[in-house]
Amino acid sequence: MYEITQMMQQKKVSQKEARRLLILNALKKQEIQRMQIEADEISIDQQIDAAANMKGVSRDEFVANMVSDGYSYEELRSFYQNYVQEELLVQKILSNNIKIVDEKELKRYYETHQDEFSMPKEVTIVQYISQNPKALARAMNNPSSKVSGVEKREERVVLKGINPNIAQMFAQTPKGQFTQIVNNGGMALAFFIKDKQGNDLMPFDQIKPMIMQQVVLSRKDKILQEYYDRLLASAIIVEIRN
Questions:
Q1: Which conformational region is residue 36 in: left (phi greater than 0), alpha (psi within -120 to 50 degrees), or beta?
Q2: What is the pLDDT confidence band of residue 240, given thresholds at 50, 70 and 90?
Q3: Under a CB-based contact definition with an 8 Å cutoff, are residues 156 and 122 in contact?
Q4: Where in the numbering of this chain does the Cj1289-like C-terminal domain appear (predicted)?
Q5: CA neighbor of 212 nearest in space, from 133, 102, 130, 126
Q6: Residue ranges per structural domain of the chain
């Protein structure tokens, strides 16, 4: 009963809705276990770094503030571990729905959302690479400083000839900002977008997987609602039978 009351206060919902949310949270945890979804340490660190950036403070300051508010460092990491696992669960649910998108729907989405599939012809990037993700994060927070263990290399990239997902990441990252950190063979990489030149519409046949992702994302709320409703319905049936 305490958990229901706490949920009612946190979410400002009725007792019935609070109970539904608690059941749904438990079902999500079961799905995460069933699918063997793990949150690696790098992903957890990235979320903590992102939270610190949103607050406009350093990582150490953010952690210190959370500890002063009554959270232990272990509780903080556990919170972001759960967050990462839920995000990965959402990705798995959405990826399982890609197969239901047909060719006509892909073309229709492509033709009506061409701005999403237009990208610069070339970008000038500064690649940051390190074996130490924490050192990489420090370098990204202080681009003008030299951080030990982090290599930087500037290059000009023609987007038409590279992996479409990487090309889209470069295209979607605003000029003057970093991409997300990516892992490549044990190395952590991030790219600073220094400049963009020209503009091209990517050919339909080359980017079908990317279009599928966008179509599924456009249906995200509906797909998740239907998936969670099925989980809740099965849980309620089991509860009634028991």
A1: left
A2: very low
A3: yes
A4: 104-196
A5: 102
A6: 1-100+228-234, 101-117+202-227, 119-201
